[in-house]
Structures are given as structure tokens and as C-alpha cells.
Please model this.
Amino acid sequence: MKKIFTNIGVLYGVNEEKLPYWTINHKPLQHIKNAFLSVGTGFIQDYGEMRDLNLTLDKFSNVELIDCQNAIIIPGFVDSHTHLVYGIPRVEEFLLKIQGKSYEEIAASGGGILNSAEKLSALSFDTLYNMSEKNLKQALAHGTTSIEIKSGYGLSIESELKILRVIHTLKQNFKHIHIKSTFLGAHAVPKAHPNKEAYLNEVVFPLIPKIAKEGLVDYVDAFIEKNYFDTKDMIDLISLAHQHNLKTRFHVNQFHDLGAIALAVERNAVSLDHLEVLTPEDIEILAQSKTVATLLPACSFFTRLPYGPAREIIDHGGILSLATDYNPGSAPSLNMAFVMTLACIQMKLMPEEALTALTLNPAFSLGLSNKVGSIERGKEANFIVLENFNTLSDLPYFAGNQIVKRVFIRGVENI
Ligand code: NIG
Ligand code: FE
Model:
């Protein structure tokens, strides 16, 4: 049955020009005051001003009317960078962090990614699936309606496959949302291998053809960082990924600039993520490209590290995305509204800019911007109803409050 959401205080994220992504070179996405939104079979059919909704009983006899009582509506969030299938949280490391240990010190003393991988290897598929499903449901409750999930806490053939199969099962069980799967085998070098080359040659490279063939993966990623993987590894991974029709996205420039940006952009990486340490040249290279710059303010918050230069990326014309980076070490929050608050306060983004970076632009980086990410006729009816809010600014302003309560996915309330 058709549904019409009426008396919307302000409808945000309206993409009248059907842009695939937004940059400062485009007109901002529109908002409509005192609006309606109509939905049929899960898709947005129409929107506009209430005064243009000609409500006659005849025309709308088979319609459910939902009075929004002046609530505002925004598109559902698209979280394009998560490590949601990690198993067990690392709360003990949080205590070390509070006592002043840095992310790198914690990793060097047996914590970090290797700690997670060891714990995950002991979990059965079912246990890991159940833990991950709970995380995904929490993401949905926070208004995320499309999501990317990485492997990378396996670090062996067996455990990486276990994670990718968990993601695959989530895809099958949550068909109403978009889940994209990323192989991050090159996340850290596990103790079982004498060196990085051995690990890449024995685990990461051989897995790519197999998981591509089995349809277990959409993207290839790697952690390009001192003591982890270098730009040569990145280039090798890009070549191999392309041979198997997979696109790439990378963790780069979190702590050090290894010169990865130019190399990855040249090779058509769809997204470069973290970017806390960025030169003006890198900002220009990103701005001239279609590679999305994905910044992770909750990771900066949690690790007490500098925030990436979001303002400069936007001002130079780059395609900016914001994501949670949800993981047990550097970003244990799935709350995209919190990411928005951090982006506005710490990165000086205007709420409308932050909203685009949480919706349309990440949808573009996941190849989904023709389906989700804005209010547009023909797109999936994924949106968040924010009751008692007057403007979009209320969202980042009421930091940490329970902001998202009503989420609609394909026109149906997620409860
Ligand atoms: O994106 N930087 C690498 N990977 C994760 C953190 C991993 C962890 O600490 O478990 C990130 O921040
Ligand atoms: Fe990450």
C-alpha cells in the first residue's frame, strides 16, 4: 500500500538534480519546509510542499497517511567504513588508553589488531555471526541503512574466510539493506608468519581469487602504515584486485604519510580513508579526482589524535565522506549522529555539509548513489524521522542524546 508522510517540518537531503555525489562545486542539496513524502513498494514516489499535495479522498482511497506532526526527515545514514565483524571488544585496552598509553604503544605491547585476531580465531562461526548481527542491528537503530563491513581480524585463511562468510550471511539475512563486503586481509602481519612478505604470499594474495570467485567480496583494502603494509604492497593488491574485477579502498595516512594518496588515486581507488595526516598536495590530488576522501572523526576522538582536514577537502572541491570506522580498538561507536557532532565541532563542517558526507557521498563510494543516500524519486525509501526537532542543526547540537528513534527502511519502520 502507498504511504504518504505528511506535515514534515523540514524534509532534508532532497537531491532535485540527481547528483551522484556532492562537492562544493555543486549547489547544496535542497530542503523543503512543510513537506510531504510519498512511498510505494519501498521506493520514494514523490515529495513536495504540503500545499501541493492535493488531498482528495477519491484520489487517495488506498493510502496510509502518516502525520509527522512537524518532525524533520533526513535520508538514512550510509556508513562506508566499519569493522563490524570483530568478535570480542577490547575494553582492557581502553583502560590502558585512559592511563595515557598511545594506540601504537598498546599495539606494540600485544594489544591492537593482533589481540582481536587471536580472540576471534577461538570463536565458532555461529558465535561470531550472533555477535555481528547484534552490532548490525545496533547500527540500524542508529539510523544506518546501508553499510560497508571489512574483514581483517582473521589474519589466516580460515579466520578471514569465517569473517567473510559471516558478512555474506548478514547480506542474506538483511536483504532490505545494502551491505558491502571488503577484504582487509592486509590489516596487520600475524605472529604465525615470519614476515610481511610471507603473510602476503601465503594468505592475502591467494585468498583474493578464491573470495572473488565465491562472490564473498566487493572491495579490497589494506592498512598502509609504518610497521604494517607499504605502498608497494598496495600497488600489488590493486593489480590483483583489478584482475578479479574488484575495486579498492584503503586505510592511508592515519599516522604517517607514505606517499600512498597519489599512487592510489592514479589507480582509481574508490575511497581513501582516515587521512589524518595530509599534505596540501594530497588535498589537491584528492580534489581533482573521483576518489572519495573518507574521514573518521570518532577514531580521532577515541585515540586522541588529530582530526583529518575535512574543511580543506571540501573547500578544494574533494568528495568528502564521514564514517564511524566502528572497531574494537580505535572507534567503538556505531553512532553516526555522534560522528556528525564531531564533524561539525571539531572539523567545522556546516550541518548540511556533514549530512551529505554521511549519506550521498558514502553511497557514491559504495557504488550505491543511484539507489540510496538522498531524497530522490525512485530511490529506496530509507529515512530517519526526528521528532521534536526544528532544524538539521538540532541533530549535531543535541550531542550524545538519544537522537535517532524512528528509522524507515524501504518505507517500513525498523523496530
Ligand atoms: O581503522 N587502522 C587500522 N584499523 C582500525 C583499527 C584497528 C584496531 O585497533 O583494532 C582503524 O582504525
Ligand atoms: Fe578502519
Summary: The domain at 2-75+374-413 is CATH 2.30.40.10 (Urease, subunit C; domain 1). The first strand starts at residue 2 and ends at 14. The pocket of N-(iminomethyl)-L-glutamic acid (ligand 1) is lined by residues 112-113, 116, 223, 251, 254, 299, 325, 327-331 (CB under 6 Å). The longest helix spans residues 196-213.
